[in-house]
Please model this.
Amino acid sequence: MDKLAVAVLFGGRSSEHSISSATAGGVLRAIDRDRFRVIPVGITRDGAFVLEDDDPDKFTLDPAHLPEVVDNGTRVVWPDSVRSRELRVTDAAGTRSLGDVDVVLPILHGRFGEDGTIQGFLELLDIPYAGAGLLMSAIGMDKNATKNALRAAGVPVVPWVAVTRAGLRRDRRQWDQRIHALGLPVFVKPARAGSSVGVSKVTDWDALDEALDTAFAEDGTVLVEQAVTGRELECGVLEAQDGGLPRVSVAGEVVITGRDFYDFAAKYLDAPGIDLVCPAALHDGELAEMQRIAARAFDAVGGQGLARVDFFFTGTEFFVNELNTMPGFTPISMFPTCWIASGMTYTELITDLIETAHAR
Model:
């Protein structure tokens, strides 16, 4: 059987560039080389497409030196029409072919990658790609749009207020009233950022403006969310097969012991105060309800590719906190961990995403 040619696309222009690069390290190490021919395509912080080294060790997540895609002088040239799927690379020696690409595996986090921009680009070229589609990616990247879509589908979500700088300038008193009605504490976060970048927990209204400034540095729209007292649970969702229901993993739990919340440092820099437990201790009925809501949330935003659905569980009710269409995907991230606990290996998970995209 001929190997499928898979372009692994990583890096990117977002603030999560290094996390995407670290994800690439895990994927390059684990992808099934007997099934797939890998073309590693990096995107620099300036947006240049370069042919990267097929070297997992180069992209190891090291807190002292986060990995990144550096401009090496090469340029990957995409097909100039839908009549071709040939990738080429130019460098100081000239131009050469990388062969036809069968599937693109975009493991980009954040804006200009997870938000529908790359997905739209690939659809213009008629190249199959793994993960969420254009609309689902755009909705999933915008926390305000996601919450509105979920609420319309009857999925329970955490109460929130979405604000812009222009709105605050026009009538700060009105917005303060709406925000204060949420009660303390609240979480302030950019509408379109991930990995907890720009997120603050506010326990005193005097700290609200500073938290807003931090979030506005990442995006023009900011969410102020009511804090929910309860367990933080997560599960992975994969696209349905053969017309069935979305596949939902077992639950994992984020146990916070010494930090205000599950921030960037705890997620990726091995900062103390957080334990990831998988599978989480839930009764069968609780897990079934969580999985039912996760599948409904997944379908509500498009039902394609994959997602990690994050919950707050009060002991009696589940609230969806966020839905991530390209969640952390390093081998130790919660999404792969939940699927591994469900009986799927990391390599099988990568294979599933690629083959689902190719069959689609």
Remarks:
- The radius of gyration is 20 Å.
- Residues 110 and 193 are 6 Å apart (CA to CA).
